[in-house]
Amino acid sequence: MSDELVHYELADGVATITLDSPHNRNALSAQLRTELLGALGRAADDPDARVVVLTHTGPVFCAGMDLKEARGASSGDQGVNDVPAILQRIWTSPKPVVARLAGPARAGGVGLVAAADIAVAADTATFAFTEVRIGVIPAVISVTVLPRLHPRAAHELFLTGDVFDAERAAAIGLLNAAVPAEQLDATVRRYVDSLVLGAPTALAATKDLLQGERGRTMADDLADLQETSARFFASEEGQEGIRAFAEKRKPNWVP
């Protein structure tokens, strides 16, 4: 049995990248981050890949950062430092990226969803920006999330950390569609079938057009916010929040 946590499969012009770490809810561990970045690069360079589908095994799409690895790490060693490269590779992929969610996404996992060109979820999936509840902030993922979300919703959901459902995720711009679970694969297939009708060079150029330069670049934003995010993960509050999460208790700032 393979020990890899991310699988790459190419069939009929579709590169399917599967997160396969259900034991920790597909959290962004060091191994998964490395393998995901490699798979995304492989898809971008694969001349036979026309569309990329990002999906998962297990009941959860991605739970965000692996908090076990973040616990006790300095800001320079925080795994969040690797996330900008992943988000940027999805965002700037010359091949359209479709995110397929059969289950929940949290924190950094929502950042992956937002980075994709098209995102489809089962209507039973839920979402949350849980960072503030463990003493950190959604800094890096804000670069991909904020262009998608309606501003009022972003303020509410970033600040409260509340869970919201797939129907609302679609209404505020995070998803293209929320569908019954039995329709998920057919809906993803419909988007993929439409995307492969586009000429590869034209699709890549159209992505550039959609993302156009507007002042600061994504790389600038990610570099600045990666440092901020890592600082919060290593901070006194961040480490207390991570400990509280692991110990299944309230952090010390909750009355």
Automatic annotation (TrEMBL):
<dbReference type="InterPro" id="IPR014748">
    <property type="entry name" value="Enoyl-CoA_hydra_C"/>
</dbReference>
<dbReference type="Pfam" id="PF00378">
    <property type="entry name" value="ECH_1"/>
</dbReference>
<protein>
    <submittedName>
        <fullName>Enoyl-CoA hydratase family protein</fullName>
    </submittedName>
</protein>
<dbReference type="InterPro" id="IPR029045">
    <property type="entry name" value="ClpP/crotonase-like_dom_sf"/>
</dbReference>
<comment type="similarity">
    <text>Belongs to the enoyl-CoA hydratase/isomerase family.</text>
</comment>
<dbReference type="InterPro" id="IPR051683">
    <property type="entry name" value="Enoyl-CoA_Hydratase/Isomerase"/>
</dbReference>
<dbReference type="InterPro" id="IPR001753">
    <property type="entry name" value="Enoyl-CoA_hydra/iso"/>
</dbReference>
